[in-house]
Amino acid sequence: MFLDWNYYPLEKIHQYTNTVSRTSYQVRPTVTYRPLDWIAVSANYQFTRSYSESDVFAGEDYFNNRDAYNKFSQINHAAGTATSPIPRGATLNQSNNGMTAHYFRGHFNVDKNFATAHQVNAIAGLEVNDRNTLSRHMPTMLGYMPETETHTPFDLTERYRQYITGTLGNVLNMGSNNMVRTTTMNRNILYFANASYTYDRRYTATFSARKDEANIFGVDINQRGRPFWSAGLRWQMHEESFYDIGWLSKLVLRATHGYTGNVSGRSAYITSRIEGTYTRTGRVYQTITSPPNPQLSWENVGMTNIALDFLAFGKRLSGSVEHYRKKATDLLSSEPINPSSGVTSLYGNWSSLKGWGWDINLMSKNVLTKDFFWQSDLILSYTNEKVTHYDLKPSTDRLYLTSNLGQYPIEGKPLYGIYSFTWAGLDEAGQPQGYFDGEISKDYTNIYNNTRLDDYVYHGRATPPLFGSIRNTFRYRELELSFNISAQFGYYIRRAGMNYGSLYSDVSYGSAPFQYDYLNRWQQPGDEAHTHVPAAVYPLISNRETFYNMTEVLVERGDHIRLRDIRLAYRLKIPQIGISSVQLYGYVNNLGVIWAANKLGFDPGRVYRTAMSYPVVRTYSFGLNIDF
To answer: What is the DSSP string of 2-68?
Structure first.
């Protein structure tokens, strides 16, 4: 009577396609005029238009379609038949996106040498951007027949009796019932100027200034733009007469200080969204998504850099070491305001943070002979930041755990941190235990709702402060091989633990069975000595589920080393037919994790969840480069 209700992961991937077709073109004329040999005036214009269509097709036998059909089936036991309001056939979701952009840049360049010791370089101009987008998502088609391009009209919001639970439900999870149309318009104007002066090839001073303006800011004209500047000094020490370090042929000291700004997609004006039809009145209604803030403006980020560039050992080793400190103010965030205004928070320039870090770049030519070449390129980066001001606090401390990372920053801590409940193990019945008021407790409601922030376990950063990569390139005559290994250290991730709520839910049938910890659950007395996975209970205790999934036992180190990519190429020289060289190459990306610090050995880039977690997609490419 029912359709096949079994789930076949390996077959599912062949019954689902996402076809995207894109068309784009670009026109880019450029005009340059030189009134003098050391002055150039240029104007650039660029027009871009793109359009894409997307068809997401799920075949008739796709699990979600069979599941929806069976879920709402009604059985006629006398006749031995089953009927369902869900139409048989495939499902098709269509969408299209368009973009039109205008870009203009006008500038003049100055490049002038005076006598033999003075050199001046300068550039100044403006940029204008206008970008408009249109996005349309069509209503979902159920009962779609690709052979005839027909479908069965169906209201996804209509509620029907469910076979398993006997309750009413709908199939809005299968798509959209209405067409959704979204348009955006962004306009920016940038005025810029850069100048540098060099004396005797040894000392250089630089200065730059810019002013950005955007149509999304301030009701007042002077709020729409903000000026930013930077200044720097550069000393080429190896050009000095007293410099005499033979093995270090180049040594340059440089320093800069300046300010930049960032912008978000939020507008200073009131924005709202049409939500659909209100059930009680039957009328279309709108909600305010962003209340007005005429003072909304650019973020302000001050940065100071000190760096050393060098070239050593007969140009065999080169690189740079750079230290930076930054202070960001007027950062965009939400601030609590008087609820009598109609909203509880206002988006604006309220927050600040500061940080510092190091960047190291090294390039070493390890072996350099007539036929064989080996080069290593090393990148190391360390960053550390902390929030210095943030006013919006959650209504309850538990939101520090359950909200998205960074939604409620904590002053004095990194922007993204990992917190958890203290774990006290399983009891003799397999029930998870925590602490409340310093005592071991199974009062999950009190632990979950009333544990204070000071009693949480702070593990550390949720983003890696230390990043590194090394690329080795080998070349033997015309054959070249390179591979890149990257690493991230010093951060933590939270994986999902056993979730019996998903396991019991018929809605989660397509994903919940893929829970690694199910095999390690507590099953009999004594198991608490070697597992942290709670025993199965029914009916479900929802706060027990939430408490367990927020405990420290599920927080893992995110440190890992990854083989990022490999490239193999071969070059042919065939001048006899007018071709300087032909290079054939193959490239593969995302090869996998070499080492991971977490106990289960999973890829931190694909944190384990209750649903199926696929590896990072591995890509292959092959190409041909021809030089004439």
So the answer is: PPP----HHHHGGGEEEEEEEEEEEE--EEEEEEETTEEEEEEEEEEEEEEEEEEEE-TT-HHHHHH
pLDDT digits (tens, 9 = 90+) for 437-456: 999 999 999 999 999 999 99
* 3 state SS of 626: strand
- Tokens 């983003």 belong to 463
Structure tokens at 435: 């602490």
Those residues whose C-beta lies under 8 Å from the C-beta of residue 598, and which sit 6 or more positions away, are 493, 495, 556, 557, 558, 604
| Cα–Cα dist 358/382, whole Å | 5
Q: Coil, strand or helix: which one is 574?
A: strand
Hey, what are 464's tokens? 């890696």
For residue 565, the Cα-to-chain-centroid distance in whole angstroms is 20
Structure tokens belonging to residue 599: 């106990």
Q: What is the residue type of 137?
A: H
Enter the DSSP assignment of 301.
Answer: E
Given a contact cutoff of 8 angstroms between Cβ atoms, the answer to whether 177 and 141 are in contact is no
- Count of H-run helices and E-run strands, the chain: 6, 32
CB atoms within 10 A of CB 331: 22
The Cα angle at residue 131 between residues 126 and 137, in degrees rounded to 5: 170
Where residue 442 falls (left for φ over 0; alpha for ψ -120 to 50; beta otherwise) is alpha
Tokens (6 digits) for 77: 């036991």
Among the residues of 229-367, which ranges form H helices?
none
Query: Any idea what DSSP says for residue 207?
Result: E
* Average pLDDT score over the chain: 89
Two structure tokens written together for 251? 């040594």
The Cα 60–Cα 89 span in angstroms is: 5
| Strand-pair category, 457-461 with 39-58 | unpaired
Compute the C-alpha angle 4/6/12, nearest 5°: 100
Q: Which two tokens stand for residue 397?
A: 């401390």
Tokens describing residue 416 = 């993204």
The number of C-alpha atoms within 13 Å of 336 and in the hemisphere containing its C-beta is 7
CA distance 196 to 39: 15
Locate 518 and state its tokens: 């199910």
Report the distance separating Cα 547 and Cα 544, nearest Å: 5
**pLDDT greater at residue 479 or residue 392:** 479
Nearest to 345 by CA among 380, 392, 304, 379: 392
- What is the end-to-end Cα distance of the chain in Å, rounded? 68
Name, in order, each residue with C-beta under 8 angstroms of 222's C-beta and a sequence gap of 6 or more. Answer: none
d(CA 58, CA 15): 6
pTM (two decimals): 0.80
Q: What is the pLDDT of residue 348?
A: 84
Amino acid at 156: L
Instruction: Report which secondary-structure segment, H or E, holds 359.
Output: strand 345-368
Query: Is the Cβ–Cβ distance between 333 and 346 less than 8 Å?
Result: no
532-574 pLDDT per residue, tens: 999 999 888 999 999 999 999 999 999 999 999 999 999 988 8
Which residues on neighbouring strands pair with residue 451, listed in sequence order?
A: none
